[in-house]
Amino acid sequence: MKVLFTGGGTGGHIFPIVAVAREIKKINPEAELIFIGPGSKEFDLLLQEEGIKIKRISTGKIRRYSGFGYFLQNVLDLFFRVPLGIIQSFFYIFFLSPDLIFSKGGHGAFPAIISAKMLQVPVFIHESDIVPGVVNKKSSRQALEIFTSFPETEFFPVEKMILVGNPIRADLIQNIDLSKFEEKIGFQKTKPVLLAMGGSQGSERINDLVLSVLPNLLSRFQVIHQCGHENFKGITVQADFLIPKNLRKNYYLFPFLTEEQLKYVYCASDIVVSRAGSGSIFEIAAFEKPSILIPLPESAQGHQLKNAYFYAKFGAATILEEENITSHLFEQKVSDLLGNSAEIKEMARKAKEFSRPRSAKVIAGYIVEFLNQ
Predict the structure, then answer these.
(1) Which of 40, 106, 331, 373 is the least buried, fewest Cβ under 10 Å from its Cβ?
(2) If you ran DSSP here, which 8-state letter would residue 81 be given?
(3) Which residues contact 142 (CB under 8 A, 6 or more apart)?
(4) pTM of the entire structure?
(5) List of domains in the chain
């Protein structure tokens, strides 16, 4: 059994692939798993640890920003990088001869999907968001199965869609020994805990928002802040300047949370402040955590905004849109939520109802059943 994975290079694409790959290995330990897509040192290591072979290709995307620099990048991507990636993918897929391709979409999946069509390799896709990305839209015609995260996912033909949720790594919510919490994270919980994060790469605007009210938050809460590798040094300097010495013990800054750290951080958190990518929403829901979602306004087709409002309508989160947010409003919203135990409990209950922690297992089951047939 040989399964080829493909997808863009962000955590929103890679983490679900890892989750599905693990479940396939549980069913068939002899399965050969391969990834074709753009390069990333951070995610290469993760894939290699899972025993997934990596084939790197040239990829590109269309940037919807004005300016000569962006125009030039688009020309280079469209006429050079993407065609090169298609040629690379074609030869990889031809010689590897996978039984099936599982695509998470994103610009990194486009060359492999085009090559799969030419070589007539079966394709399954998974769409994380309510509004499908361009590549998954294009892939939907050739896809045999389309797994979706939300029941109101747009565009796809209903007869192909299977609602499964967004795959999360099963190990995140398993084997948690709370007696090891301090050892894993490095502190004891003494106050309500706020977790702030902006996806796997961090968010400068969420970072700035947290810093703008940090001393006030730390006087009442403990704050765990994942800021992103590129932002870590700058945030460290700013935080040292802003936080009084007597409150520094309440602030815990991480450039990136490993899987082992993340599970304990989620357990400790009372509320989570996050972007509204599907991966973040379904992880938050799996841990039954109330959340404040700040959708990325520039997300393609406004998918984060639609994700957030669907989840909030379910009753598990509250939304702050960037164009309306102020430091005072953010601080007030955090304080109001953490001060209302009844609302916190109800949001946690709704999050549990929304979660689909078996998503990766369901997708793996479909893949293995198809290949066995």
Answers:
(1) 373
(2) I
(3) 113, 116, 117, 123
(4) 0.89
(5) 2-168+357-372 (3.40.50.2000), 172-354 (3.40.50.2000)
